[in-house]
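Supplementary Methods S3. Input chains for the assembly prediction are listed below.
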Amino acid sequence: MAGSTYGTIFKITTWGESHGKAIGVVIDGCPAGLPLCENDIQRFLDRRKPGQTAYSTPRKESDEVQILSGVFEGKTTGTPISLLVENTSQRSHDYSQIASCYRPGHADYTFDRKYGFRDYRGGGRSSGRETIGRVAAGAVATLILKKMGIEFTTFTRSIGPISIQEENFDASFIFQTPTLMPDAVAGRQAEEYLKECMKNHDSAGGVIECRVTGLPIGLGDPVFEKLDANLAKALVSIGSVKAFEIGDGTLVSTLKGSENNDEFYMDNERIQKRTNHSGGTLGGISDGDTLLMRAYIKPTPSIFSPQQTVTSAGEEVTINIQGRHDPVIVPRAVVVVEAMAALTILDSLLLNMTSKLDSVVNFYNRKE
Amino acid sequence: MAGSTYGTIFKITTWGESHGKAIGVVIDGCPAGLPLCENDIQRFLDRRKPGQTAYSTPRKESDEVQILSGVFEGKTTGTPISLLVENTSQRSHDYSQIASCYRPGHADYTFDRKYGFRDYRGGGRSSGRETIGRVAAGAVATLILKKMGIEFTTFTRSIGPISIQEENFDASFIFQTPTLMPDAVAGRQAEEYLKECMKNHDSAGGVIECRVTGLPIGLGDPVFEKLDANLAKALVSIGSVKAFEIGDGTLVSTLKGSENNDEFYMDNERIQKRTNHSGGTLGGISDGDTLLMRAYIKPTPSIFSPQQTVTSAGEEVTINIQGRHDPVIVPRAVVVVEAMAALTILDSLLLNMTSKLDSVVNFYNRKE
Amino acid sequence: MAGSTYGTIFKITTWGESHGKAIGVVIDGCPAGLPLCENDIQRFLDRRKPGQTAYSTPRKESDEVQILSGVFEGKTTGTPISLLVENTSQRSHDYSQIASCYRPGHADYTFDRKYGFRDYRGGGRSSGRETIGRVAAGAVATLILKKMGIEFTTFTRSIGPISIQEENFDASFIFQTPTLMPDAVAGRQAEEYLKECMKNHDSAGGVIECRVTGLPIGLGDPVFEKLDANLAKALVSIGSVKAFEIGDGTLVSTLKGSENNDEFYMDNERIQKRTNHSGGTLGGISDGDTLLMRAYIKPTPSIFSPQQTVTSAGEEVTINIQGRHDPVIVPRAVVVVEAMAALTILDSLLLNMTSKLDSVVNFYNRKE
Amino acid sequence: MAGSTYGTIFKITTWGESHGKAIGVVIDGCPAGLPLCENDIQRFLDRRKPGQTAYSTPRKESDEVQILSGVFEGKTTGTPISLLVENTSQRSHDYSQIASCYRPGHADYTFDRKYGFRDYRGGGRSSGRETIGRVAAGAVATLILKKMGIEFTTFTRSIGPISIQEENFDASFIFQTPTLMPDAVAGRQAEEYLKECMKNHDSAGGVIECRVTGLPIGLGDPVFEKLDANLAKALVSIGSVKAFEIGDGTLVSTLKGSENNDEFYMDNERIQKRTNHSGGTLGGISDGDTLLMRAYIKPTPSIFSPQQTVTSAGEEVTINIQGRHDPVIVPRAVVVVEAMAALTILDSLLLNMTSKLDSVVNFYNRKE
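Predicted structure tokens for the full assembly:
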């Protein structure tokens, strides 16, 4: 199992290597009747496009998406939606060094040992370009969720040691800065930090936060298919993510029950929680409050300083990575986090329709 | 989908509520030929039994496991292994208060809304007793992994603000203290902290760490089925876990690439990493190094102070939780984390056998 | 993968060997709110109980089902329903002969080779008792389907060369005869045929037909998850089934398009098919007409005449099968066919709820 | 779930409509190291190409396959293999009639009702062109199986009432005749029959048989994942298949146990069956003998005589189907049956590697 399929009802299958002919995704199980055109998806893809700021790789990738199936007269038909992006700008430069060397922090070594050999041009299947399929499918998922009033706010929470301040939070800043931080002050500091990193031929990590509003109560299932468990898998499956949090996350380990419990109260005939330490789930099931999760991203492993490593033949060598690499991937990964969250939530939402017998019976008795 | 099945090849299905007749698990896909008896599983279950220390609920649960199928003449046969534990000591006391109230921090509210009603005796399906099936199945998984030299060291890393010190780490302490901390000094401090919590009718959270040695290289698949992604789901699917880390975890977001990359070198003809910031995976695939993960556990939501909440009918009320509850669940959850890690690793290991065509061809040509 | 789990949303996992302590099934994903008690299931199980007629094994198996979880105050809660039947009447007689011999027509040989050894008492996992779990789960599925007006008529179509005549068809006969044939004349002839078989220490096969009415249009998905494809798997997965038909089945291969096409017409504002050669599906999707399928059952392999075979050590021997065996399993398998059909249809029905975006949006917007 | 993914380890996802831009398949989980080029796949695809004989549609479809990912330096890498065929020759003629009419025997009606509307150009997703993805993936599966000595002989067994005679069977004829019948006499008679059908503006059905040799013992799992159950699903999932048989198939229902049991004997130190009524499986597990299965195909529903039907608006109309349609699809479907059988067998073979603990332990201990 190469593990390229995700989801139970809204199921996506991604394919493609960074230096192959193309990259794509097949979406199976999309409900019929969604208006969809290339532009709807392109807008999402453009959010991960490189070459847009001083802090991302200067590679130019136009990444234009084509819809090959599943849409007829402007609407989804219920059959698989095949989306394809050609790999137009991958330079066929000299890969002789990395063909035999294992780059520290990359998957070269483990791929070689698992499969016996690997596509050594760029990252192959474990390149960041792998996320194109996720983002294209995520665009479709968010369009569907929007119809039910479910909205995403996803942004850079921190870069290196520079974190946003909650009191400065202003979502309107997100798309106005190269860092995608909703805090103008922190954003400027982060830019300084990145410039320093680049000057030192080094790279930075950071934290991405995703907030989702408008969720119905009841998404997620007890035990193994908890909504937060699936979100954890979704986000940690993104290359470079090393930690996942929901709600107060790591902080809860130091709190007391009296501090961490969210009390219920009535607000205008509706049940509400006074606080949201839980981050929007109770017992793994959405509680109607804002869903809040975070992904911790490691610094880009491709740095421009010499590093010690070994070759596949077992020789110790010094490697000097060439090429065009992002000093930080966090801003470009924001839309990937949003896409994975949307795919996971949509699948939970579709699966949840059968939780009550009454709903099922009404559904079919209503139909004719 | 109620979400009670886990795994692709080594697949488990758990069932049972805290106050039903019994709780159990069916293990399907266990390879044939493993010597297995009740005692092998009981040893694991006893690690989560309550009533063993001053810091766990005084409820007595004997939790004796029975093997109902899948074992013949002392060995697994390849057919489903059905394991059952009777619920002998659940008191049928008065549930009238919690039957209609939503306890803060519990799943009462979300279950009611998802399913239309719920088993209000204890936590029902979302009780901590749900983990019995996970632990019983995990016992079988660890026995298999042990045959390949794969070993687990799982322990309490912190309780509330009290954390172990790496320099004091001594694994032999783990099973000698009620906290399961491998640091005698921190263990005593944690006990003091817990006593204080109990005096204040409050509860504590903490962190569990799991280290796995002896893993082959190659477990986990690129993209969605990364080993760390599946471990994230496995651990966050345990009730009360709010964050997951692999390797340096949240810390990586503040490091630079030059600090976080693990350089390779040759040690006695074998490729090794000089450091293990990655925590044993590269590109989502095991790299042969120690696999290191952590789960952050929230404080027990059942506390003995009055709390504000609402009833299912929408009345605001004050709730005073009665009964026997753990002031901290971290020590009892240690074996649950180990079980979930073992189940996930074993499934990856079985799935990995088909990664190379040569291995497949040799397997069948060797057979006859 | 031992293959004991079936279904995507309404998912069942069966376990147990013929001579183990018990046999059971876990139903996961049953919608909450279905009234359910042991009797509802027992009625179904009694339909497969042996010892009821002259033409089934005289073994007495009381096969009393217990509900261990998932039902609270008389209704399903949405959590796993664990059902268990104890193996009370399995005689521990002498198995020394079949322990080492491969019985012709049985799975002894293939189990031994696949797993390295086997539970040789009775058929172990491949015994007919394996179907208890299917039937118990099927009972729950039919109760749900009944709420939507979906009804099953399942019966013996033929035994050996004796087949019912369509013009004599009378469903009220089915439960009045030991053969479960809806044709009194054919039923009597079949009884004569079976008596002859028994006198000759031989056994008979036959055909089971299942007709389902009241199905909504739209169940089943294009391509691999066609409704008829899943029914084919469901029925052929029952031990001894060697052929599957839908609608006119094998006959269609000799028909012309003009004979086989079902023309549409309007009947009282509703679209109807003038004939039902298709058997209720078009393009793998239910068309609202009666779903009609058949399973062809081989003669019981356990016969009381001497047979040539080999031992696991590779010696040629003559085997004389002892014990209590059905001269024909067809009547007892009728309820198994019905159960598998019901499980498959219910799962398709639950999966079909997400086919249209409008339905999904309305479902959630209606909810609050 | 639109049902376009098939397989557990060797998993394929097909996409595309008859009149969209392209049709394709993603193969995930293909073991690394298989030499693969476009030609290997093209040879298989050419076997289903139309326009090659007098008895298939005169449409010209070049159907040239492109490999877009998963192959590097001529070998599979273990990552998804994306295969694409452009839809070059679909005429954009006038679909106004079938856009609103439900063609008898087609999926028009059920698609409309399930999804709310449909791609009415040709059959859309339920067109025969859908099988291109299956065949392309099946080509890869057969290449892998061949490395283990597993070979397929698939052919037309009958067309209409004309069936091959076992005594005339000569596999070398298969690819020399337009009917793909391994019996020259029957082949000529079938051609006469087809000419007659065409003259009468009618169509014919038939039977396809697939024989597989060289299978290891042990493929398939007890209970739901029997090898024959999965083959049943695989073959019935092909459009127009209305019945499935394994071994003696429907015939067994009329046989006695003494006639149908296959006795074992020793042949040169190996266990063999004296007959093969079982068709190569016992208890759902391959027994090492020739696997033999059959698919019964209905006559092409598109016929050139007027038919009564209704429009989506509920008006009764007469339809005269235009265009280019096969008078019989059996010969073109032969390779589709072979592909589905190969995919199913390969997946069972990969899943079977974990049945014995010893094999698993040896696999990993051997590795380093």
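The domain at 5-365 of chain B is CATH 3.60.150.10 (Chorismate synthase, AroC fold). The CA atoms of residues 18 and 123 of chain B lie 6 Å apart.
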